[in-house]
Design goal:
With 620 residues, the protein is α+β, with helices and mostly antiparallel strands. It has 3 domains: 189 residues, 2-Layer Sandwich (Heat Shock Protein 90); 127 residues, Ribosomal Protein S5, domain 2; 196 residues, Ribosomal Protein S8, Chain: A, domain 1, CATH 3.30.1370.100. 38% of the residues lie in helices and 21% in strands. Strand 20 and strand 21 form a beta hairpin. Helix 1 packs across helix 4, helix 17 crosses helix 21 and helix 18 packs across helix 20. It is globular and about 85 Å long. It starts with 7 loop residues before the first helix and ends with a helix. The relative contact order is 0.09. About 11% of the residues have low confidence. Bound molecules: adenosine-5'-diphosphate (ADP) and magnesium ion. Magnesium ion binds next to helix 2. The site of adenosine-5'-diphosphate (ADP) has 21 residues, from helix 2 and helix 4.
Length: 620
Amino acid sequence: MPIRQLSETMINQIAAGEVIERPASVVKELVENALDAGASRVEIVTAGGGLNLIRVTDDGSGIPEQELALAIARHCTSKLSDSIHDIRSLGFRGEALPSIGSVARLSIRSRTAGGDSAAEIGIDGGRVSAVKPAAANRGTTVEVRDLFFATPARLKFMKGERAESSATSDVVKRIAIAFPAVRFTLAGADRSTLELPATSDTPEGRLARVAQVMGKDFPDNAIAIDAAREGVHLAGHVSIPSYTRANALQQYAYVNGRPVRDKLIAGAIRGAFADVLPRDRHAVTVLFLSLDPSTVDVNVHPAKADVRFRDPGLVRGLIVGAIREALAGAGIRAATTGAAGMMAAFRPGAAPHSHPGPANGHRSYEAAYRASGGFDPLRSAQRPLDMDEARTPRNGFAENEQAAFDTGPLASADVRAGMAEPTEALLGMVLGAARAQVHENYIVAQTRDSLVIVDQHAAHERLVYEALKNALHSRAVPSQMLLLPEIVDLPEEDAERLAMHSETLAKFGLGLERFGPGAVAVRETPSMLGETNVQQLVRDLADEIADNDTVETLKDRLDRIAATMACHGSVRSGRLLKAEEMNALLRQMEATPGSGTCNHGRPTYIELKLADIERLFGRR
Ligand code: ADP
Ligand code: MG
């Protein structure tokens, strides 16, 4: 076949293959256009999951009659003035409308502020109709019918009305979080109506919009983030560690107001929470990055959800640092849903073990955790070979930390006799004054206005873990020589990167050096890792360094070893504690960042406000 130029419609259909994957992508493009036009109201209606109809109406600037034909022509945009390196609008490629018009029946009706009437144009599987007068208020209505009628192959990939409807809701919610001052409605016979009244573009307004989208639970269980470094600003909220999800879908990220799904950001969030969450749990986050548009490339993929940062290390460092600092600064806080669940269980008539519902973060986690058999250090891949020795203080890291709590068994009579009246100072502390130990594991404490119940085993485990980690990161980690150096073959760039970081790696107990082109020789490994898969470790490290320019993997692994050992070195439930010991534990928890959750992400304490308790008894 001779080479020939593709027809305009075929070119648009090819572009549509990339930009318009499903109804939700159409909604995304049309809503972005409305927002770029400065709309303060965006109304979306769908039918048949969006495959029959998508209609987006806005009150934005409108399109002048004489530009309607250009709006649906390929590579025509009003948004890119002179540089692709300085993009401040959501759109800029000028291909959404012609792409949609090539695979569906599209019509645009629009009226500008200055125009005395509206006009309309249509494009039907690539066939453009003439502009004609119409009646409409200021703004634009874009209607898309019979999506993919012109490309039946794509139609076959649709997942069904319900799935497409929910993908559309997700897209609208994601964008709406970034535009709190805009009112959004999403309606149709195929869905329940979503209404998001305008709030304001202030920190409070943004949080209010987040609450509209994600539910009030999240703000109640979130910590504010606000940090800047070298011209990059990060704001938003992250959940406290006891409020988590089973997947990362509830992690919203924005770069200069554009919703993105970015690997670097997702990785940074994972890194920041690595210490406080189990591997299979995910934080809930809403993060806004703002930076000079010329330092970020949004033109990576036609759908514009990917970005590239000029300085990825800076962005990653800012996110990890800001989240960790916020988590530390927030001190200890258990999820309110925990207390709420407890209250629900207490309520007269509540079924025993009733579950407070899907909104409850850690409860549902606990169920999953139990079902999975829980965390078993003896089965952990990273368990040290000398696990049994680690358990006895002789060789264990926990030795010193353990000693403080090792006061030998006590008679329960001592416990009761030892309880003095709490001092005002103690009552004023976050976790209050210890009043009793019940069921040999729960410390009951009292603050001025609440009752606190601490799981002593979980709490102590966390404290030991934090102490171990500090020890680990403040001095060199012991390593063991391999009998024969292990040679790892790698792509040359990876070998080079590892060699460049060899000094840092040595600090963690991993001794390696270049071994000719495309290989490294490993001579020493961290003793704590025991008999580890050196090849895998080195390759993971190379990937990690390439992705993030850090050595997070090894540190993570060591942290997990520390967690495993802490689990064995901590006060078992069943130990009776003296009043001073209990109070010492509470004070130590207050002073230790992250101690609000145990190493497995469960809360270490629950606080019940006196007011809530009184309500339970009908006193209020
Ligand atoms: P892009 O958004 O990348 O510019 P589109 O194909 O999505 O490309 O839109 C083409 C042009 O049509 C836009 O640049 C804009 O001028 C105009 N346009 C599209 N939708 C609207 C709208 N809702 N209100 C005002 N103008 C619009
Ligand atoms: Mg657009």
